Amino acid sequence: MSKDEFVFAPFGGCREIGMNLNAYGYGPPDARRWLVVDVGVTFGDDSTPGIDLILPDPAFLEEHADSIEAIVLTHAHEDHIGAIGWLWPRLRAPIYATPFTAYLVNEKLRERGLDGEAPLHILQLKDRRSFGPFDVELVTLTHSIPEPNGLIIRTPLGAVLHTGDWKIDPDPQIGEDFDQAKIEAIGREGVLAMVCDSTNVFEEGEAGSEADARKALSEVVSRHAGRVAITSFASNVARVEAACLAARDNDRSVCLVGRSMLRIVDAARSVGLLKEFEFIEPEMAAQLPARHVLYLCTGSQGEARAALTRIARGDHPSVSLGEGDVVIFSSRVIPGNEKAIGAMQNMLADRNISLVTPRQADIHVSGHPCRDELRRMYAWAKPKIAIPVHGERRHVMEHARYARSLQVPVAIAPNNGDIVRLAPGPAQIVDEAPTGRLYVDGTILTPEHAAGLGERRRMAQNGYLAVSVTIPRTGEIAPPQIAARGFSEEDGGLADDGLEPIDAAADDAVSRLSKAERGDDEKVEKVLVRAVRKAAESAFGKRPLIDVFVHRI
Cα–Cα distance between 19 and 55 in angstroms, integer? Predict the structure, then answer.
């Protein structure tokens, strides 16, 4: 009797929208072969000071790296490919992607010095390939980026439809249409499980079409006589094309602003998109009359170093906006970015720049399925098992409930690290693999526990005190010297009079040390930390981070 099992395991994307890393296993539990789907990132926020990128920890897959048949990427969004350059050295399996995605993946590999080392293979749309026990067929879907693919993963124990990110767009503007016929065909063939996007599960209706956003964008641009800046997700090439057409309709030249925008346009042109448009440099745009300029900018989420934020601060080297100009936000607010976006919009308003957001006009549509689209997908695919992914816990749990209401026999809401047995036997979580997060700290990749975030948060909230004490071999100990940072003073530190209670506490603590204690550095440090912390808490109501430096002469 065969001991083969077919399992699914998410290592990211089931507690967050982003950081997607999924794996399918086939074979006996002690000798499974693995197929990895997507290797993405999420982004740091106020809770992770100094951290820009957060990656799923691939420790489990790293242990089984010799058993990984392939890494298949569904599309080119950062939350699906952004970690490939960082994590490929730990997985070392061949990478497969469609041309647009492969162009951007190659850039990421080059940035990490891996071009020529990591094998990157091109898949064409609708391709079908075998990777060990996995027969993988690409299904053309629609999303907010070129070449989005679902995957039909066939094994001797059944087939999975892995949707990736998708929506049902009746008029997607670029790329091929949603392949409903293929979804229906696999539904008739038999779908064991559907692993599906949960992002918009709380939204009724449908996401809407790029055609609607394109028409609205041109109309909004036509209302303004000054310079126009449009900000959107650079990866939404259909929206980039819509901005270019809006410029053409209104006799404006397009200037691309921001590295991501330039990179995405290069990738689009590599697969034949956007070739009909010409772009001008910022220096030329500055010489044109305001009514003939349209800037297409990165920074829709208020990123501190992005082009639009620099324009809002007034420190962009080649682009400036002012009274009479308008910024059009053709994008949604990603949860967690509200403060950054609000701050940037306030800076723009301070410069008398008009703002247009999706609240004022229908200039954005989502790239993810709402409830009506999910209902249609389940009706076409007819899976026996629903496995929601790509969402926070509330999204994943609600998606499982919704799937059950659509008469899907089994719905499992996995957590990151859960190993779900799909077949044989009843679908259930049978094991838990180690999982976690890795942080990109500058140029260093570090585990979550070693990132020093606790100390960074503590310094941000409570400040920092450095205590330096010199202990001579003979004679009296000089009063400790104290430096303060992060307290409420104009110069960033504490004035001498503000330090008086801390100075007094440190001096008193040192004077009480016995001769034996003075010879023990660890004892000196412990006594000073205790005394200084108590004094700081009494004087300022804070418990700062404290370092003690003992010098002996």
Answer: 6
**pLDDT tens digit string along 149-161?**
999 999 999 999 9
CA separation for the pair 23, 471 (Å, rounded): 59
* Pairing state between β 293-297 and 253-257: parallel
Q: Which of 104, 343, 145 is nearest to 234 (CA)?
A: 145
d(CA 96, CA 114): 15
Which class in CATH covers the domain with range 210-356?
Answer: alpha beta
Compute the radius of gyration of the chain from its Cα atoms. 28
Give the C-alpha separation, 317 to 446, whole Å.
34
- What residues does each domain of the chain span? 5-205+366-449, 210-356, 453-552
Is a pLDDT exceeding 60 seen at residue 496? no
- Superfamily grouping for domain 5-205+366-449: Ribonuclease Z/Hydroxyacylglutathione hydrolase-like (3.60.15.10)
Tokens of 411: 């719905």
One-letter amino acid for residue 388 of the chain: P
Contact 337, 179 (CB under 8 A): no
541: Cβ–Cβ under 8 A, 6 or more apart, which residues?
A: none
**Distance, CA of 361 to CA of 475 (rounded, Å):** 78
Cβ-contact 391, 399 below 8 angstroms: yes
Model confidence band, residue 474 (pLDDT cutoffs 50, 70, 90): confident
Buried-exposed string 430-451: b where 16+ CB fall within 10 A, e elsewhere: eeebebbbbbbbeeebeeeeeb
Q: How far is CA 368 from CA 47, 165, 203, in A?
A: 27, 6, 10
- Give dist(CA 528, CA 549) in Å, integer: 10
Lowest mean pLDDT across 197-201, 335-339, 342-346: 335-339
The pLDDT mean for the chain works out to 94
Instruction: With a cut of 50, say whether residue 491 has pLDDT above it.
Output: no
First to last CA, the chain: 77
Q: Give the type of residue at 34.
A: W
Question: Between helices 496-511 and 521-540, what is the axis angle to 10°?
Answer: 140
| φ and ψ at residue 84, rounded to 5 degrees | -60, -40
Contact predicate 178/169, CB 8 Å: yes
pLDDT band with cut points at 50, 70 and 90 for residue 376: very high
Percent of the chain surpassing pLDDT 90:
83
For range 176-198, the mean pLDDT: 98
Question: Coil, strand, or helix at residue 308?
Answer: helix
Residue 178 CA to residue 170 CA, distance in Å, equals 8
- Tell me which of 1.10.10.10, 3.20.20.140, 3.40.190.10, 3.10.20.580 is the CATH number of domain 453-552: 3.10.20.580
Give the helix, strand, coil percentages of the chain, each rounded to 5: 35, 25, 40
pTM of the predicted model over 0.85: yes
Phi/psi for 540 (5° steps) reads -125, -5
